[in-house]
Amino acid sequence: MTRITRYFAIATLIAAGTLLATPPAQASAKVPKSVATANPLYKTRFGSVNCGAGTPRAGSRASYRTFLIKVNTCLATAWRKSFAQAGKKFRAPKMVLVNKRGNTSCGKFPSRFVGYYCYNTETLYIYMWSTPIKNGYGLWGAELLAHEYGHHIQGLAGIRAYSLQVPGNESSRRLELQAQCFSGAFLRSVSGSIPGIAENWAYEIDWYKKNGGDQAGAPADHGSGPNNSYWLNRGWKTASPGSCNTWSAGRARVA
Ligand SMILES: [Zn+2]
Q: How far apart are CA 56 and CA 60, in angstroms?
């Protein structure tokens, strides 16, 4: 696969995450810390997941859309497997691919985000950004989708509910970096069946290391570039959600 040089606007990419402005979940009983630090999902593995998503054709928005719809199906396959191993019930989120950031079921899709997950309606929103579509660079969208899917998993697993009890940016960073790791774990599991992922992986984690993460002047809620790169790659190395326990990690790893 041709390696694509990105002109990605950093300000757009860094915020590939959930919003703190998401309305809080309904008041409920206190969630124990062990839900985040010792979740049964950590004992599960994706292994190899056969995903016939192909690659998006450069310049075709329709092809990129089809690609993401297929990747979304493969995400459900991978996570259903993981939840079955953990003895937990799984349900897939809804996915909405948008060409313009308009209204979502959680309010307005802010211009600084490219991906957004609404916990209340269990809906993923993916902004169909023109640059990767033009280049036919599927890894961008697959990684973003897998990250947002990670927030859905955190919602189902009770991890997000625990995080809401812990105020401050560190809790947000642990959540975001875990979603990065979940994304890396999934991408590894399908890397044998989706062309262009393994070939571009080194470039991807290097890009995150140098350009990703919280930028000066913005809230420190997603973690540093090196830590984003680290957790993404940590998931990749194992193809297992078990390597994604950011909740037990030392502070430097979630800075
Ligand atoms: Zn996120």
A: 7
The per-residue pLDDT for 27 is: 54
Element (H, E) at 103: strand 103-104
Q: What's the CA-to-centroid distance between 146 and ligand 1, angstroms?
A: 10
Nearest-angstrom CA–CA distance, 139 and 46:
19
Q: Is 205 exposed, middle or buried (0-12, 13-18, 19+ CB in 10 A)?
A: buried
What pLDDT does residue 3 have?
37
Residue 125 identity: Y
pLDDT tens digits, residue range 55-99?
Answer: 999 999 999 999 999 999 999 999 999 999 999 999 999 999 999
Q: Measured between alpha carbons, how far is 125 from 149 in angstroms, rounded to an integer? A: 10
User: What whole-number distance in Å separates Cα of residue 203 and Cα of residue 220?
Assistant: 24
CA of 17 to the centre of ligand 1 (A): 3
Q: How far is the C-alpha of 177 from the C-alpha of 17, rounded, in Å?
A: 10
Residues with CB under 5 A from ligand 1 (ion): 17-18, 176, 179
How far apart are the CA of 61 and the centre of ligand 1, in A? 24
Across 191-213, average pLDDT: 96
* Cα-based angle 231, 205, 15 (whole degrees, multiple of 5): 70
Vertex 122: Cα angle to 152 and 172 (nearest 5) = 45
